[in-house]
Design brief:
By secondary structure, this protein is α+β, with helices and mostly antiparallel strands. Helices cover about 15% and strands about 30% of the residues. The strands form three sheets. Strands 1, 2, 3, 5, 6, 7, 8, 10 and 11 form a nine-stranded mixed β-sheet that branches. An eight-stranded antiparallel beta barrel has the order 12-13-14-15-16-17-18-19. The chain has a two-stranded antiparallel sheet with strand order 4-9. A hairpin with a 7-residue loop joins strand 13 (about 345-350) and strand 14 (about 355-365). The longest helix is centred in the first third of the chain and has 46 residues, at about 35-80. The two termini are about 20 Å apart.
């Protein structure tokens, strides 16, 4: 899952305090008279003025030092509050949410060229790539990572090698929670890890669901208990082995700390996972033959081949929404039994085919998240307040190959997979754009659009 419970760190790094600059001494040019009385008077005046200047300078520097101590304390509190989470920032150690990732992971970074020359699975082991933006189960809003699939989805665990896509330093290793986070029942792997890699001080990779660690990593961390993390510093070259997986996919996020996605109207709503607003298409950093091969293995047939997650458009229906009062992505909703995604809603293009619209909601019925395709044509980017209420008829999503055969992911990969509506309608959702980046939403499970005439008292407000 893209959202992970906080993990316990077994080591932390203190933030070094910058020293206050020393006050400059005044430079005085003086023409001395030969008369002793005048000389004595001038010297006395200089001594008095110098004492006042020194006292004032020390006082000003003391105030500056106090400010720096306050900032550092806030920084330490932010890091302590968000242990085990990643975020993304500028190269300054301030306390904004956008900088916590850098504050936690930058110690091992090196200012160097980050040339992405290796696929995350070696040639002959990589099957295909699901782009960013997929919505499934508790991933109600578009995922901030690609899914890297091995060649054989039925292979035994620890068959394939996960490798470094570019030179860098592994700076953190975590053991994932022992139980699956989501509404579906799903088993977890015996070994399951999250890795943070600093390729330089701008680009960072996050790999999730790496199972057995490579000898280079396991020799440093040993065996971690579930939901624990350790800071490390393990430099590796491009193509070096990180760990192993079986037939199941692993997650890869590429974080650009100097880029903030422009398609999130309120970035602060993602403070719980603030690296999300800096997650870019990882395939975009490749070039030449390697890039061509990776793009050919992406489910998308058009750029961006690594996907897109930020779809908000001011004043329009398209994009991510959060039920009013739930506090954004991480949610402060105490009645959702830990289901932080309960108040999430996404109305966006399908992650594979931009011409299809998908509605993803955190609670369709019975406290269960659901993802449905809109039947017929729909363009939520064109729906505004002036449009008035719109009704979308929803159906299950199925992906088909160009031949028309269903694509389940277990077949040999073919380019041109697209989503279609599968089976009968599951219901209707009615939405209306309001002022102030809010929308009115009501679900009508089991009803057709013709059976829905108006909002009822069950309608809810979502915001962003």
């Amino acid at each position: 899952m893209e959202h992970q419970p906080p993990v316990e760190e077994t080591s932390t790094q203190p933030v070094e305090q910058p020293k206050a600059p020393e006050a400059e001494k005044p430079v005085v040019s003086l023409k001395i008279s030969k008369k002793p009385l005048i000389i004595g008077g001038v010297i006395a005046l200089l001594l008095i003025a110098g004492g006042v200047f020194a006292f004032t300078s020390r006082g000003n520097n003391s105030e500056k030092d106090k400010g720096k101590e306050q900032i550092s304390e806030q920084e330490r509190e932010a890091i302590e509050r968000d242990k085990g989470r990643s975020t993304t920032p500028e190269t300054t150690a301030d306390t904004t949410s956008e900088n916590r990732f850098f504050a936690e992971n930058s110690e091992g970074c090196v200012e160097q060229d980050a040339s992405f020359t290796s696929a995350p699975l070696p040639e002959g082991q990589l099957g295909w790539i699901e782009p960013m933006g997929k919505v499934l189960d508790g991933h109600v809003t578009p995922t901030d990572h690609v899914y890297v699939h091995p060649l054989n989805s039925r292979a035994a665990d620890n068959t394939y090698d996960v490798v470094m896509p570019a030179k860098g330093t592994v700076v953190a290793i975590s053991a994932m929670p022992a139980s699956y986070v989501g509404d579906r029942q799903q088993e977890t792997a015996v070994e399951d890890h999250r890795l943070v890699i600093a390729h330089n001080c701008q680009y960072f990779s996050i790999f999730i669901h790496v199972h057995k660690l490579s000898p280079a990593l396991s020799a440093v961390v040993g065996k971690l208990d579930p939901s624990t993390s350790k800071k490390v510093s393990i430099p590796l070259e491009a193509g070096a082995k990180l760990g192993m997986v079986g037939g199941s996919a692993f997650d890869w996020s590429l974080i650009d700390t100097k880029t903030t996605l422009t398609g999130f109207i309120s970035p602060e709503l993602y403070d719980g996972e603030p690296w999300k607003i800096h997650a870019i298409d990882p395939l975009s950093l490749y070039s030449g033959a390697v890039k061509t091969k990776l793009e050919a293995l992406s489910m998308r047939s058009a750029a961006p081949f690594g996907g897109k997650i930020d779809n908000d458009k001011a004043g329009a229906l398209v994009g991510n929404w959060f039920r009013e009062g739930t506090g954004g992505y991480s949610s402060n909703n105490k009645d959702s039994s830990g289901r932080y995604w309960d108040g999430h809603l996404s109305v966006a293009p399908d992650y594979v085919d931009d011409s299809s619209t998908v509605v993803s909601i955190g609670n369709w019925t019975n406290d269960t998240a659901a993802q449905y395709i809109v039947k017929g044509s729909a363009d939520p980017s064109a729906v505004t307040k002036a449009t008035g209420p719109v009704k979308y008829e929803l159906a299950a999503i199925s992906y088909v190959q160009p031949s028309g055969a269903e694509w389940t992911g277990n077949e040999k990969f073919v380019k041109g997979v697209k989503p279609i509506a599968k089976g009968a309608s599951v219901g209707t959702i009615m939405m209306e754009v309001l002022d102030g980046e809010k929308i009115k939403v009501e679900k009508f499970p089991g009803k057709t659009p013709a059976q829905v005439t108006a909002f009822t008292s069950a309608a809810q407000t979502y915001e962003r």
